[in-house]
C-alpha cells in the first residue's frame, strides 16, 4: 500500500499503470471477442475467407479527415437480396436470369477492382452470362460474355473486351471515369451493372455477388492478403503480454536462484556459473536466435525458450551476485546458521526474499525488451508462422513495401501499440526503480 | 537494446583482495596473462557452441554429402569414357569419385572429430570457403567476405557510439549540475522511449524522411551508381549514414543521458566533492578533478559495453537499412544455411567482444587505483 502511494507520486508511474491496465483489458477482450481458433483461421486466410475485403485498404476513419472521400467497398449479393434477380421463363429449356446491380457512387477515388462471384447449379449445359456496364451519363460499355462453370469469379480488370476497346487505360478509369475530364476523376451517380444470364435447363440457376472493392476497410484497414488488420492488432496484445511476462519472470527468477546458489556454495559452483555467464555474454544472443530460427524452428515457444535460457545467464546474474555477496555476510544469515538452518532454507528463506524488491524494477523493465525481441525476429522474417502478432504485421508491411508505396497505416498501427507497451512498462519500471532503490529516490 | 548507461555499482571491486608480495609490474603482467588465458578459453567454448549450432549437430553435413554426390554424378556423366561403362562399372567409378570428394571436404571423419578441426580453424581465423556466398570482388573466401563487410559496420556503429557517448557524458554532467530544470524533466520523461530498439525508430525515420519528404535515401551505403570522385563518394556515404545513426541515437540517447546524469549526481554527493565545494574551487575544476577523475573507469566501462550492445543490435538495423555490414551478412548466411560464413562471423564477433572485455579489464586496472590487480578472473 505504501509502495503504491509512493509510486503514485510519480506521474510517469501513473501513466505507465494506465497503459498497462489498458493493455491487460485489451488482452482479456481479445479472446472473448475472437476465440483463438477463429483468430488463427482468419489470419491464415484460406480460400474465400477474405474474398470481400479490399487489398491494402486504409482504415475507414480516413474519410473523417477533411477533403478525403475515398471509396468504400460495396457488396451486392443476389442470394441475400432476391430483388436483384429477375427470372423469366422463355421456353421449356430456356430461362432468362437478369441481374441488375445498381451501384451508387459518390466517392472521389476509383475502386480498386470490381469482381463478380458467380455460383451456378446445372446438370449438363453451362449457363451463359452477358455483362453490360451503364454509366450515370447514359453510356453503355459492353463487357465480356462468359459461361459459368460451378462457381466462377470474374474480374473487370481481366476483361478482354474492355482491354480491346480501351487499350492502355486502367479498367476502373474506363468504368468509373468522367470522359470529359482531363485528369482521371470518377463520375458521381448511379452505375448499373447488368448481368443477363441464360440457363438452359429447367432447374438450373445462377446467383451472383458483385463486390466493388473500395480503398477503405474497417477499423484498421487490410494488408496485402486482404486480411483485416484488427485480427492481429487485437491478438497481438495477449501474445505480447504473455510472452513478456513469462520470459521476464522465468528468466529473472532463475537468475536469482542460480546467483543465490552460486554465492552460497561458493567455490567451483560459483566459478562454473561465472564461466557460463561469460561464455554466454560473448555469444551474440540475437545471432543465436537467428540461427535457431533459420535452421531449426520458427515456433514462438522454441524462440522464447532460447531467449529465456540466454537471459538467465546474462548481465543480471552479475549484479544479483554482487548483492548476494553482501547479503551472505549479514549477521542474520550467521544467526540462521547457528540455529541450524540448512543451505536450502537459508537460500530460499533468507537470501532470496531479501533481494526480490531490487529485482522487481528490472523484471518490469525487461518486458518491453521481450516484446520488441518478438518484433525484431518477425521483422527479420523469423516470426512464428501461425500466430498473429504486432511484429508479424510490421514484417509483412516491410516485406511488401509499405514504406515505399505509402501504406503508412500498415506500419503505424502496430508501431503505436508496440511503443505504448514499451513506454508503459518502461515508465512503470523507471518509477519502481526509484521507489525500490533509495539511492535514486531523491535525485 | 542499445544502451550505454553506466553501471551504478562497479562490480568486481568488492571481491578483489590486494595481493601482498609481488611488485606492481609483475602483478600487472600476471593479471594480464590470466585474463588472456580465461578469455581465450571463453572464446573457444563460445565458438564451439556456435559450431555445433550452425552445423545442426552434424546435419548440415548430410546436405553437403548430397550436393557432392549429385555434382559428382552429373560431372561423371559428361565424361565419354564413363558413358561407355556398364552400369556396375559406372556406379563403382562414381562411388570412388564421391569418396574422394568427401575425403577432400573432410567428410570421411565423424562429425565430432571434424567439429574440433572446425574449432581450430575458426580460432586461428582460418575461415575456409563459403558454400554459396561471394564477396563483391567475386571471392568465396570467408575471410575476404568478412573483411569486406567489417568496415561498414565499424563506420556505422563507431559513429553512432561516439555521438551517443559524448552527448550523454556532457549532457549528463550538465544535468547533474542543474538537476530538476526543465531540460532534466524533459529528458526524464523521454527516457522510457529507449525501451524500443533502434530499428523501430528506423522505420519511422525511413517513413518520414525517405517516404514522405523524400530527402534522404531509404537504405544502402552509397548511391547507385557510386560517385566516381572520392569527395562525392564520401558525401554519398555521409548522406546514407544520417538515418541509421539517428535511429541508434534516438533509441538510446535519453536513457543514456539519464543514466550518466544519475550516476554523476550520486558521485557529486561524495564527501570529497562537498569538501572541494566548501574550499571554493571553480565548478569546472570540481567537475574535472573530483567527479570525472574518480568515475573514469566506470565511464570507460559504459563506453565499451555500449559498443558491445550496439554490435549485437547490428543485425536488424543493417537489414532494415540494407547496410552492407557484418550483421546483415550474418542474417543472409543464416537464411541460406551457409555454415562457414555463420561460423566466421560468430568467431569475429566473439573475438571483438573478448578483446573489448579484455581491454576493459586492463583499462580498469590501470585507471582505478582502488582496483588492485593480481586476483585475476574475478569479473
Structural key phrases:
heterodimer; A: 443 residues; alpha+beta; 5-stranded antiparallel sheet; 53% helix; B: 379 residues; mainly alpha; MetI-like fold; 14 helices; disordered N terminus; disordered C terminus
Description:
The complex is a heterodimer of chains A (443) and B (379). Chain A is α+β, with helices and mostly antiparallel strands and 443 residues long. Chain A has two domains: 2-39 and 228-440, MetI-like (MetI-like fold, Orthogonal Bundle), CATH 1.10.3720; 60-213, Jelly Rolls (Sandwich), CATH 2.60.120. In chain A, 53% of the residues lie in helices and 16% in strands. A five-stranded antiparallel β-sheet of chain A has the order 2-3-8-5-6. A four-stranded antiparallel β-sheet of chain A has the order 1-9-4-7, with no helix packed on it. The longest helix of chain A is centred in the middle third of the chain and has 37 residues, at 229-265. The two termini of chain A are 23 Å apart. Chain B is mainly alpha-helical and 379 residues long. Chains A and B meet through helix 7, helix 8, helix 10, helix 12 and helix 15 of A and helix 1, helix 8, helix 9, helix 12 and helix 13 of B.
Which sequence of strands runs across the widest sheet of chain A? 2-3-8-5-6
Compute the number of helices of chain B: 14
Say what the CATH topology of the largest domain in chain A is: MetI-like fold
Q: Overall 3D geometry of chain B?
A: elongated
* Rg of chain B computed from alpha carbons, rounded to a whole number of angstroms: 27 Å
Radius of gyration of chain A: 31 Å
CATH superfamily of the largest domain in chain B: MetI-like
In the residues of chain A, how many domains can be counted? 2
Q: What is the count of β-strands of chain A?
A: 9
Amino acid at each position: 500500500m505504501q509502495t503504491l502511494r509512493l509510486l503514485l507520486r510519480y506521474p510517469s508511474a501513473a501513466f505507465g499503470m494506465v497503459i498497462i491496465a489498458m493493455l491487460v483489458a485489451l488482452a482479456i477482450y481479445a479472446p472473448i471477442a475472437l476465440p483463438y481458433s477463429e483468430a488463427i483461421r482468419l489470419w491464415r486466410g484460406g480460400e474465400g475467407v477474405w474474398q470481400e475485403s479490399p487489398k491494402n485498404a486504409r482504415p475507414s476513419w480516413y474519410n473523417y479527415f477533411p477533403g478525403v472521400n475515398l471509396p468504400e467497398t460495396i457488396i451486392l449479393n443476389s442470394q441475400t437480396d432476391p430483388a436483384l434477380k429477375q427470372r423469366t421463363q422463355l421456353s421449356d429449356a430456356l430461362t432468362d436470369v437478369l441481374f441488375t446491380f445498381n451501384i451508387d457512387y459518390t466517392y472521389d477515388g476509383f475502386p480498386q477492382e470490381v469482381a463478380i462471384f458467380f455460383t451456378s447449379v446445372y446438370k449438363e449445359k453451362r449457363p451463359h452470362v452477358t455483362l453490360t456496364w451503364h454509366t450515370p451519363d447514359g453510356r453503355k460499355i459492353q463487357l465480356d460474355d462468359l459461361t459459368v462453370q460451378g462457381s466462377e469469379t470474374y474480374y473487370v480488370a481481366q476483361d478482354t473486351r474492355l482491354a480491346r476497346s480501351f487499350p492502355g487505360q486502367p479498367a476502373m478509369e474506363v468504368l468509373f471515369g468522367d470522359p470529359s475530364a482531363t485528369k482521371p476523376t470518377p463520375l458521381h451517380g448511379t452505375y448499373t451493372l447488368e448481368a443477363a444470364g441464360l440457363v438452359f435447363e429447367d432447374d438450373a440457376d445462377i446467383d451472383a455477388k458483385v463486390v466493388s472493392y473500395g480503398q477503405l476497410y474497417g477499423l484498421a484497414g487490410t494488408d496485402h492478403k486482404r486480411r483485416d488488420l484488427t485480427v492481429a492488432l487485437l491478438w497481438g496484445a495477449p501474445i505480447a503480454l504473455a510472452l513478456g511476462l513469462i520470459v521476464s519472470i522465468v528468466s529473472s527468477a532463475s537468475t536469482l536462484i542460480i546467483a543465490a546458489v552460486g554465492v552460497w556454495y561458493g567455490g567451483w559452483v560459483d566459478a562454473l556459473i561465472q564461466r557460463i555467464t561469460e561464455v554466454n555474454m560473448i555469444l551474440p544472443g540475437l545471432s543465436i536466435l537467428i540461427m535457431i530460427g533459420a535452421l531449426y524452428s520458427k515456433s514462438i515457444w522454441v524462440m522464447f525458450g532460447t531467449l529465456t535460457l540466454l537471459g538467465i545467464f546474462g548481465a543480471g546474474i552479475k549484479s544479483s551476485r554482487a548483492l548476494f555477496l553482501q547479503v551472505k555476510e549479514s549477521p542474520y544469515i550467521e544467526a540462521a546458521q547457528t540455529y541450524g538452518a540448512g543451505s536450502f532454507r537459508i537460500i530460499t528463506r533468507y537470501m532470496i526474499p531479501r533481494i526480490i524488491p531490487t529485482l522487481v524494477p528490472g523484471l518490469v523493465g525487461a518486458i518491453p525488451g521481450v516484446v520488441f525481441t518478438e518484433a525484431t525476429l518477425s521483422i527479420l522474417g523469423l516470426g512464428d508462422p501461425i500466430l498473429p502478432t504486432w511484429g508479424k504485421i510490421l514484417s509483412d508491411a516491410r516485406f511488401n513495401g509499405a514504406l515505399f508505396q505509402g501504406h503508412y497505416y500498415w506500419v503505424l498501427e502496430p508501431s503505436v501499440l508496440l511503443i505504448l507497451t514499451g513506454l508503459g512498462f518502461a515508465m512503470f519500471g523507471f518509477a519502481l526503480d526509484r521507489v525500490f532503490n533509495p539511492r535514486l529516490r531523491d535525485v | 537494446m542499445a544502451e550505454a548507461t553506466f553501471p551504478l555499482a562497479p562490480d568486481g571491486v568488492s571481491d578483489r583482495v590486494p595481493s601482498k608480495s609481488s611488485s606492481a609490474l609483475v602483478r600487472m603482467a600476471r593479471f594480464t596473462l590470466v585474463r588472456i588465458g580465461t578469455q581465450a578459453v571463453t572464446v573457444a567454448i563460445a565458438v564451439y557452441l556456435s559450431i555445433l549450432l550452425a552445423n545442426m549437430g552434424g546435419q548440415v553435413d548430410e546436405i553437403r554429402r548430397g550436393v557432392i554426390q549429385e555434382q559428382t554424378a552429373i560431372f561423371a556423366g559428361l565424361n565419354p569414357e564413363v558413358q561407355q561403362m556398364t552400369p556396375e562399372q559406372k556406379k563403382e567409378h562414381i562411388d570412388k569419385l564421391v569418396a574422394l570428394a568427401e575425403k577432400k571436404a573432410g567428410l570421411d571423419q565423424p562429425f565430432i572429430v571434424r567439429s574440433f578441426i572446425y574449432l581450430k580453424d575458426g580460432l586461428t581465423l582460418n575461415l575456409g570457403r563459403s558454400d554459396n556466398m561471394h564477396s563483391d570482388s567475386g571471392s568465396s573466401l570467408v575471410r575476404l567476405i568478412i573483411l569486406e563487410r567489417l568496415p561498414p559496420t565499424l563506420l556505422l556503429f563507431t559513429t553512432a557510439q561516439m555521438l551517443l557517448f559524448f552527448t550523454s557524458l556532457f549532457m549528463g554532467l550538465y544535468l547533474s549540475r542543474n538537476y530538476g530544470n526543465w531540460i532534466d524533466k524533459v529528458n526524464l520523461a523521454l527516457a522510457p522511449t529507449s525501451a524500443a530498439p533502434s530499428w523501430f525508430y528506423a522505420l519511422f525515420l525511413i517513413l518520414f524522411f525517405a517516404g514522405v519528404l523524400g530527402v534522404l535515401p531509404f537504405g544502402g551505403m552509397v548511391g547507385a551508381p557510386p560517385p566516381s570522385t572520392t569527395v562525392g563518394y564520401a558525401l554519398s556515404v555521409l548522406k546514407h549514414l544520417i538515418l541509421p545513426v539517428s535511429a541508434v541515437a534516438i533509441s538510446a540517447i535519453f536513457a543514456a543521458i539519464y543514466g550518466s546524469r544519475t550516476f554523476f549526481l550520486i558521485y557529486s554527493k561524495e564527501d570529497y566533492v562537498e569538501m572541494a565545494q566548501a574550499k571554493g574551487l571553480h565548478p569546472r575544476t570540481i567537475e574535472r578533478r573530483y567527479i570525472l577523475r574518480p568515475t573514469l573507469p566506470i565511464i570507460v566501462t559504459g563506453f565499451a559495453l555500449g559498443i558491445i550492445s550496439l554490435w549485437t543490435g547490428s543485425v536488424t538495423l543493417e537489414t532494415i537499412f540494407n547496410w552492407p555490414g557484418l550483421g546483415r551478412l550474418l542474417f543472409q548466411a543464416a537464411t541460406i544455411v551457409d555454415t562457414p560464413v555463420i561460423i566466421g562471423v560468430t568467431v569475429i564477433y566473439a573475438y571483438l567482444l573478448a578483446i573489448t572485455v579484455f581491454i576493459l579489464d586492463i583499462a580498469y586496472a590501470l585507471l582505478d587505483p582502488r582496483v588492485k590487480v593480481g586476483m585475476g578472473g574475478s569479473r
